[in-house]
Structures are given as structure tokens and as C-alpha cells.
Inverse folding.
């Protein structure tokens, strides 16, 4: 499906015959009107008297059949006609047509074409993709506290550990399986989607075709489904979305982005596609560029910043640490609680507060040398060696050293809680450094 231009990929759509249609329509075709209203939950932008299928008269509804039609021809014509000559003369956003395929398995023949709507007081129904990685389980925990356990579904293609499986709803979801993903969104009445599935920078370089599929094709699936079902969509980006020609110290929100990794390229693509869908189709897309994230209870998934997590585990377990980056390699970093807090905050921010759809967020920035000094305050006997990994060093050398996040702080009040000393103390108290010191002594 991914190779078919979205406009041409619809298989089945509702049809109202043009000739005897008693309902006054806008300057487009009835098919298009119904699709637009039914699936985007909007009034016709031209404000004619088109109605959603559920509101049509029985006679009119009888004429609505879900039958196969030469979709490519009709939809292309409808869309072309609308774009060239809208009835009211204004520009009209059109949802990408792959979004409006209807699977007979999912929609009863007499179903309303409206999605379920929620009042403001309702909690969102959340799906997290790629939720078993470093960040997803923590995000699910935070969101479940806020919205209720059963309103947050964690998903991945891996098997969850017992404690994760029994802590709330878990479902298998491969983001490359478009129909299955759509079915999950429909059947669970999802309203917010956090798209965490990805191959990170180092593993991405080791398997470019897979990274391209997961990070780019997977994103296309998620975008189309989110647009079709009016979801609020969060996609994380990264410091890795910048490259050697970007200003590195500090790196502002808007500047040259020419990353040299497939991970970075796919994240720039995600930022641009999400913003495009926002401006073109009204998708509520929100994106933060995360620094390297440091967590105690979850392992990183193969990135360039992983050393800053591993050092804590090695310091406690063996008292030795071998670092794959040079001692003076400076990168922006953040404790996981700050990262997840920012994610929830930007998702809850009123749309009017967001002057942009993709924001840098920052907390601290350090080199391996500086981190080691701080770690040695807790584990003084830590022995350190450096064995530089050329691939990861080259990646790190092309990334920002400091992140400028002034826009996030101004627009929606972003503020971090953890600096380097606070981070290190928290990591050791979480991992139980006492046991290590006791063993050494
Ligand atoms: N951890 C960080 O330091 C960091 C920094 C910046 C941005 N991010 C972004 O945050 C998100 C989450 O990061 P993370 O560290 O948890 O990543 P991770 O690598 O730990 O986890 C990614 C998850 O995606 C899953 N996945 C892979 N292929 C899939 C598929 N086809 N369908 C569904 N799931 C699939 C994997 O099983 C894995 O559990 C990613 O998009 C990442 O780019 C992370
Ligand atoms: C920075 C981030 O995107 C990830 N931790 C990586 O190193 O790939």
C-alpha cells in the first residue's frame, strides 16, 4: 500500500447517485461530501446543506451503497474538481484518500459515518506504538495515572514482560500492518496516538532497509490513520534530526537539517510530513525533539547516547566502564521523567498556544568526562577506559551540543526538573548504589 499514492489507493467508498439526489450539495460530488463530512467529522467547508449519512432521509440513505466502484477515476475527478473549482471559491482541505477505504469487516452496512465523539470532560483513549522500548512503558504508566488504566493501550511487536502485561491493556501492533493498525484504532475508539516505534541511530545504520521501513513506511501508516480518525498524534523527533551543517551550539528549532543517518533522515521526514498533514488536512500533529534520554528501569534500544545509561549499570555491577565516545563529546541529555512530562504537557497544551508543531526540548548537556566526574561522587572507585566506536563517534560529532528550547518554554511553559547532579543522584537511588558500595567494601 505504501507505494500507492494515497489519492489513488481507496478501494471502496460510500456512493450517492448524482442524478436523483434530492439533497442540495456543494460544488463537489456527493461522494466527496459524504466522505469529507463522515470521516473528518466536519461540516462541509462550503457550508452547503450536505449531511452526514446518519442524518440523511431513509430514501436518501437507501441510495447510499457501499459497493465497489472505479475509485481511482471518481475520486481523482472529485478531488481535482474540488481543488480547481470549489463551490464557494475557498481552498478546501482534503483528507488523503487512502484514509477513506472502508473495510466491510469494520463498518456495519447501516453504521453511522460519524466516528464516536467525546465531550471535553472525557479522557482520551490512548494507543502507544513501539511501547516496549526504553520510553513506552514509563509513558503508559504516566498516562494511566492521568487518564485511567484502561484508557491507555500499550502496543509492540515484542512479547511483554509479566509486570508490563499485567499492569494494563497490551496489544500486538505492527505499524507496518496498516489494516491491523486501523482496526485497533477503530475497535478501541482511540483518540490520541503516541507513535514510539522506531529503529534508533546506531541500529538504524546497521540495518538501513529495516530502519527505512519502520521509520518511514510505518510513519506513513500512522499519519494516514491519524488523519482518517481525527486523532491527536504525537511523534517524537530527536537531536539526531540535525547534522554537521546545522548550528551545533546552540541548535535552534529552525535551521539547516541535513542529518547523515537514516534515523535522522526519517525523523526530519516525520517532522515535515506531520506538519504537512497538519496544515493540509488539519491533523493535530505534535512533535518534540528529544535529547538522549536516561532512565534507570528501562534499557535503551541501540542509540548513540546509550553510554549515558550503561555507565550507571556498569558502575554498580562491575565498577568498570568502557566508553565508546571520546571524553569531550558533548550531547544534550534528559532524565526520562522530564521527557515524559514534556510529552504529556505538549499533548495537553491548547492548540492556540502552539506557534509551531515541532519543538526542541532541553534539560542539560554533558560530555562523558563530565558524567564520569559526577558518577564518581557516588562510586569513587569507578575505573574508566575509552574505546571509541567510529560509527557512533561520527554520529555524535554531527549532532547538536546544546539545544535551544526557548520556543517550548515560551509557548507552553516547558521547564525541566533534573540537571546533571540531580539526574545522577536519582539514577543511583533508583538502582540502589548502596548494594554496590557494600559489595566493594
Ligand atoms: N530513547 C531516546 O534517547 C530517544 C531520544 C530521542 C527520540 N527518541 C524517540 O522516542 C521513541 C521511543 O524511543 P525508545 O528509546 O523507546 O526506542 P526503543 O528502540 O527502545 O523502542 C522502540 C520500539 O519499537 C518497536 N518496534 C520496532 N519495529 C516495530 C514495528 N514494525 N511495529 C511496532 N513496533 C516496532 C520495538 O520493538 C521497540 O520496542 C522513538 O521514536 C525514538 O526515535 C528516543
Ligand atoms: C538521541 C536519540 O534519538 C537516541 N537515543 C539515539 O541515540 O539514537
Amino acid at each position: 500500500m505504501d507505494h500507492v499514492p494515497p489519492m489513488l489507493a481507496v478501494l471502496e467508498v460510500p456512493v450517492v447517485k448524482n442524478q436523483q439526489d434530492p439533497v442540495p450539495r456543494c460544488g463537489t460530488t456527493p461522494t466527496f461530501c459524504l466522505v469529507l463530512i463522515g470521516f473528518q467529522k466536519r461540516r462541509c467547508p462550503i457550508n452547503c446543506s450536505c449531511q452526514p449519512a446518519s442524518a440523511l432521509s431513509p430514501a436518501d440513505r437507501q441510495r447510499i451503497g457501499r459497493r465497489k466502484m472505479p475509485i481511482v477515476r471518481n475520486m481523482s475527478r472529485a478531488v481535482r474538481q474540488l481543488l480547481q473549482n470549489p463551490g464557494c471559491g475557498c481552498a478546501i482541505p482534503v483528507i488523503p484518500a487512502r484514509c477513506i477505504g472502508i473495510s466491510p469487516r469494520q463498518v456495519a452496512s447501516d453504521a453511522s459515518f460519524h466516528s464516536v465523539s467525546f465531550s471535553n470532560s472525557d479522557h482520551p483513549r490512548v494507543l502507544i506504538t513501539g511501547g516496549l522500548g526504553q520510553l513506552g512503558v514509563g509513558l503508559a504508566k504516566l498516562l494511566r495515572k492521568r487518564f485511567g488504566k484502561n484508557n491507555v493501550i500499550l502496543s509492540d511487536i515484542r512479547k511483554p514482560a509479566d509486570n508490563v502485561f499485567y499492569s494494563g491493556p497490551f496489544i500486538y501492533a505492527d505499524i507496518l500492518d496498516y489494516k491491523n493498525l486501523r482496526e485497533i484504532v477503530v475497535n478501541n475508539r482511540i483518540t490520541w496516538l503516541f507513535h514510539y516505534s522506531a529503529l534508533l541511530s546506531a541500529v538504524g545504520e546497521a540495518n538501513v532497509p529495516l530502519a527505512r521501513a519502520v521509520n518511514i513506511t510505518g510513519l506513513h501508516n500512522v499519519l494516514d490513520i491519524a488523519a482518517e480518525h481525527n486523532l491527536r498524534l504525537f511523534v517524537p523527533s530527536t537531536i539526531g534530526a540535525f547534522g554537521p551543517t546545522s548550528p551545533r551550539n546552540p541548535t535552534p528549532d529552525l535551521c539547516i537539517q541535513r542529518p547523515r543517518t537514516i534515523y535522522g533522515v526519517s525523523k526530519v521526514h516525520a517532522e515535515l510530513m506531520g506538519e504537512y498533514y497538519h496544515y493540509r488536512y488539519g491533523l493535530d500533529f505534535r512533535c518534540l525533539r528529544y535529547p538522549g534520554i536516561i532512565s534507570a528501569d528501562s534499557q535503551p534500544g541501540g542509540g548513540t547516547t546509550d553510554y549515558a545509561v550503561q555507565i550507571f549499570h556498569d558502575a554498580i555491577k562491575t565498577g568498570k566502564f568502557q566508553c565508546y565516545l571520546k571524553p569531550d563529546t558533548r550531547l544534550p541529555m534528559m532524565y526520562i521523567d522530564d521527557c515524559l512530562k514534556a510529552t504529556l504537557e505538549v499533548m495537553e497544551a491548547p492548540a492556540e498556544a502552539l506557534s509551531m508543531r515541532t519543538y526542541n526540548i532541553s534539560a542539560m548537556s554533558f560530555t562523558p568526562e563530565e558524567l564520569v566526574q559526577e558518577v564518581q561522587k557516588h562510586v569513587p572507585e569507578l575505573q574508566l577506559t575509552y574505546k571509541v566506536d567510529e560509527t557512533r563517534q561520527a554520529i555524535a560529532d554531527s549532532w547538536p551540543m546544546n539545544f535551544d528550547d526557548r520556543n517550548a518554554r515560551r509557548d507552553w511553559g516547558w521547564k525541566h526538573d533534573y540537571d546533571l547532579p540531580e539526574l545522577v543522584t536519582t539514577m543511583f537511588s533508583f538502582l540502589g548504589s548502596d548494594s554496590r558500595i557494600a559489595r566493594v567494601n
User: Anything to note?
Assistant: The chain has 16 helices and 15 strands.
